[in-house]
């Protein structure tokens, strides 16, 4: 039969159909996050620093691949750190893929196939840790999401530029999309619950993530998390409000937040985020120490103790944070203290035996 609908109208219907499908996707992903948060009692606990803990277990991370190096050399240590965080009360564990990129593995001599397998492995290790944990703690009592960590282009460069957001003029939106696209697909297909875009230092990269998610056939939700060194803007100097607005507009994004930022800035940043988004707010600050990109080490500046850190938790929760954890230099002790201050006392008691045993084994 010939066309009965004029082309323009057909195109319009197609556009409307696509928009309706995007709305349905958005609703489904939003509900998924809402159900998860409800199951955690309203506020989910995110895990803490991975690199610090791997080093504490004896891993040598002196390599541009950083914590991703352990995917090769000591996956059992990664699994152990995931378990330590789960037993400290974490509802969300982040995979060891922050600095794991296809390009990084290729430059180390791995084939494209091997490189993609290493990315998948980061997710599989976290899924395995969750399975082990849920053999003891029923998922109904302690739900756990596996979040596939995606560091910025600067994290791949390993020159500290994720703390400046300055990639130079030659890096365009397309450069960033081309850099991240395949990695996002591989990680999403490996079976995590959510994609965690972390330590996002500038607006251009947030835009690249949003476009990859909207263009691609990614079926799982994502969060966008930014870092700030002045408590107002993201580290590049781009407006946090502009960055958060990109996250808010992306149908796949179900939480927007701040990570790897000193605790003292977090309260103000939560209030800023609330001006541009109604999506759940996520925060996982660092310990307050400062990263020196030249020396490639953390220097104590206005560092806070676990007790100081945790004294903020109630304030952050009251200000509207719905996912709270720690970033660099925080430990299972920090996460246990967060769990406790969110009134998840019973969980901490249940896991006390685990921690006694694991500290005896050290
Ligand atoms: Zn960090």
Automatic annotation (TrEMBL):
Residues 1-20 are annotated as: Disordered. InterPro entries: BHMT-like, HCY_dom, HCY_dom_sf, Hcy_S-methyltransferase. GO terms for molecular function: S-adenosylmethionine-homocysteine S-methyltransferase activity; zinc ion binding. It catalyses: S-methyl-L-methionine + L-homocysteine = 2 L-methionine + H(+). Transmembrane segments: none annotated. Binds 1 zinc ion per subunit. SUPFAM superfamilies: Homocysteine S-methyltransferase. Residues 32-342 form the Hcy-binding domain. Keywords: Amino-acid biosynthesis, Metal-binding, Methionine biosynthesis, Methyltransferase, Transferase, Zinc. The keyword Iron does not apply. The keyword Amino-acid biosynthesis applies. Residues 7-16 have a biased composition (Acidic residues). PROSITE patterns: HCY. Its EC number is 2.1.1.10. GO terms for biological process: methionine biosynthetic process; methylation; S-methylmethionine cycle. Its cofactor is Zn(2+). Zn(2+) binds at residues 260, 327-328. Monomer. Catalyzes methyl transfer from S-methylmethionine (SMM) to adenosyl-L-homocysteine (AdoMet). SMM degradation (by HMT-1, HMT-2, HMT-3 and HMT-4) and biosynthesis (by MMT1) constitute the SMM cycle in plants, which is probably required to achieve short term control of AdoMet level. This is homocysteine S-methyltransferase.
């Amino acid at each position: 039969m010939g066309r009965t609908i004029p082309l323009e109208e057909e195109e319009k219907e197609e556009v409307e159909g696509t928009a309706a499908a995007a709305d349905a996707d958005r609703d489904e992903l939003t509900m998924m996050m809402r159900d998860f948060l409800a199951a955690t009692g309203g506020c989910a606990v995110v895990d803490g620093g991975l690199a610090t803990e791997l080093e504490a277990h004896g891993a040598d991370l002196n390599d541009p691949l950083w914590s991703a190096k352990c995917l090769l050399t000591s996956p059992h240590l990664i699994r152990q750190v995931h378990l330590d965080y789960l037993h400290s009360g974490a509802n969300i564990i982040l995979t060891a893929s922050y600095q794991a990129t296809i390009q990084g593995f290729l430059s180390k001599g791995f084939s494209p196939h091997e490189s993609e397998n290493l990315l998948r492995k980061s997710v599989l290790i976290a899924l395995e840790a969750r399975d082990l944990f849920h053999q003891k703690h029923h998922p109904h009592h302690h739900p756990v999401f596996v979040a596939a960590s995606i560091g910025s282009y600067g994290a791949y460069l390993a020159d500290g530029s994720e703390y400046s957001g300055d990639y130079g003029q030659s890096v365009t939106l397309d450069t960033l999309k081309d850099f991240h696209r395949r990695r996002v697909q591989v990680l999403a297909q490996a079976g995590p619950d959510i994609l965690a875009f972390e330590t996002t230092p500038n607006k251009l990269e947030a835009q690249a993530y949003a476009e990859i998610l909207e263009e691609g056939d990614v079926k799982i939700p994502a969060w966008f998390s930014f870092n700030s060194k002045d408590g107002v803007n993201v580290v590049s100097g781009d407006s946090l409000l502009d960055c958060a607005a990109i996250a808010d507009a992306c149908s796949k994004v179900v939480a927007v937040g701040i990570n790897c930022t000193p605790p003292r800035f977090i309260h103000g940043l939560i209030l800023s985020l609330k001006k541009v988004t109604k999506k759940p707010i996520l925060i996982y600050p660092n310990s307050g120490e400062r990263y020196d990109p030249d020396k490639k080490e953390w220097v104590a500046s206005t560092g806070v103790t676990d007790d100081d850190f945790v004294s903020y938790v109630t304030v952050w929760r009251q200000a509207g944070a719905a996912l709270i954890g720690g970033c660099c230099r925080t430990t299972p002790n920090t996460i246990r203290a967060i769990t406790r201050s969110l009134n998840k006392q019973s969980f901490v008691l249940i896991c006390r035996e685990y921690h006694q045993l694991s500290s005896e084994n050290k």
